[in-house]
Amino acid sequence: MVKLLSGLGLLVGAVLNATLVTSAPDEAVLPVLLIPGYASTQLHAWRSERCSGLGHDVAVGDRVWVNLAHLIGQQECWLKCMSLRVEDQADISCKLRAGEGISSIAELAPGLLTGPMSIVWRNVIETLTGHFDLGPHQLMVASYDWRLPPSKLQERDHFFYTLQQKIEDAVVQNQSQGIVVLAHSLGNNVFRYFLEWLQRQLHTPDAYQTWLDSHIASYFAVGSPFLGSSESIEALTSGSSVTLPLSKESLRQLQVTFGSTQWMLPFPRSPDDPKANEVLVTVRPLTNTAY
């Protein structure tokens, strides 16, 4: 269903096997933090939405990204649920929020038929819990609403504050020398922005460096758009090539409402950039006229 994400598990699993297994057998395994990428976390409804079709209403707790029943049966309602208000990135209808825990990133659309086609992090999670024997307190997920620009992640969800607390708690609970951060795609931009945000919170370079030395043991960047991503240009101009039963025009109109799309454009962004949240593109629906 999402071709760009289907091979991620095998790729990251290979990276982990090639790096972490070099530790001595009797050495304690460090906690791992997974930061998923663009479109790689389930989004759930926290406000109900009435749809026109029978049996396709969106209820609180329903998975919207990705729910093929809603998408196929009530496409207009689904698009409204997924869209954000361009001006301020506010919810339009369903009030979607990121799912929590490993289940929110293992598969986007769990199910007998849809599950195998929507695997994202499942293979990585199985490697970490099986081969490295990580438990619930050692394997963490920094799930986030991947539609939002960085400032809104903090303003609306207090995401970076929560992430700081999660990392600090993991180090204390596991009495470890820090954690291993494994980020994919947009997740790398999220982590880099977090470090910029943290540096401003801690005020002095020495305090920031001390925090890093105590809490971050390793950082693995997988598929990172450090120089930007051409796919974000495609999303803004013609619609992303995500394999969903939607027209490219519908995908384009949806994706230009996401502030995160311009976060991956090939030019630098930082917390101090005054243009980071400016409206970049607006789209008017096409009107077909018959002659």
From TrEMBL:
State the protein's name.
Uncharacterized protein
Keywords from the UniProt entry: Signal
Gene3D superfamilies membership: alpha/beta hydrolase
**Which source organism?**
Aphanomyces astaci (Crayfish plague agent)
Output the InterPro entries linked to this UniProt entry.
Answer: AB_hydrolase_fold, LACT/PDAT_acylTrfase
What Gene Ontology molecular-function terms does this entry list?
Answer: O-acyltransferase activity
GO biological process: any one? lipid metabolic process
Signal peptide positions (record): 1-23
Q: Which Pfam families match?
A: LCAT
Give the domain of life: Eukaryota
